[in-house]
Amino acid sequence: MVMLNRKDIESLGFLSIGENLQISDRASFYGTERISLGSNVRIDDFCVLAAGIGGIFIGDYVHVAVGATLIGAGKITLSDFSGLSSRVSIYSSSDDYSGGAMTNPTIPAEYTNVKHADVLLGRHVIVGSGSVILPGITLEDGVAVGALSLVQRDCNSFGIYAGNPARRISERKRDLLEVELRMKASKVN
């Protein structure tokens, strides 16, 4: 994987960028003026980040793995220490599949009924490979989503969710919060 250098990242025109970025030269970005990247962010090959009106906001220490997609007009937020495994898809917009309107981006907006809603992933959220997160969803701090899950409802903090549709199957340990504090303390000294 070839990573872009700082100058190349700056030339893409992001809204803001932090330090220590690892961005693959094979990732694709649309609406970069609405994408904000924190520090210690890694975005791997074949990811697509397409920021609509709401933008995409990525915090510190965030990993977006190979082939992940973030797309839509609503705001998408990946908070500090969150991570997306390969082929995760996050949508902040979705067509109306009921048949009550036409679908796809080639149709004029007045003939569609696209839903736009913000998506928020809290701190320490991890989403397993191949999972899909639909518009309007909040994954509270510490949520873990198992591979191949469809998240169509909000997920409460420190729960482990899996399935289609995703449901809470277990509790997640909070030990990682102490590990975060140790990491931060070690950087001060």
The major pleated sheet works out as: 8 strands, mixed
* Tally of helical segments: 2
* Strand ordering within the main sheet: 2-5-8-11-16-19-21-22
Shape call = globular
* Architecture (CATH level 2) name: 3 Solenoid
The CATH superfamily bears the name Hexapeptide repeat proteins
SSE ordering: HEEEEEEEEEEEEEEEEEEEEEEH
Averaging pLDDT over every residue, what do you get?
A: 97
Strand content: 25-35%
Total number of beta strands = 22
Determine Rg (CA atoms, Å).
17 Å
Instruction: Provide the low-confidence segments as ranges.
Output: none
- The CATH class turns out to be Mainly Beta
What do you see in this structure?
- The protein has helices spanning 6-11, 175-188; strands spanning 16-17, 22-23, 28-30, 35-37, 42-43, 48-51, 56-58, 63-64, 69-72, 76-78, 83-84, 89-91, 93-94, 115-116, 119-121, 126-127, 132-133, 138-139, 144-145, 150-151, 159-163, 166-171.
- The protein is mainly β and 189 residues long.
- The strands form four sheets. It has an eight-stranded mixed beta sheet, with no helix packed on it. A six-stranded parallel beta sheet has the order 1-4-7-10-15-18, with no helix packed on it.
- Strand 21 (159-163) and strand 22 form a beta hairpin.
Gist?
11% of the residues lie in helices and 32% in strands. The protein is mainly beta. The radius of gyration is 17 Å and the shape is globular.
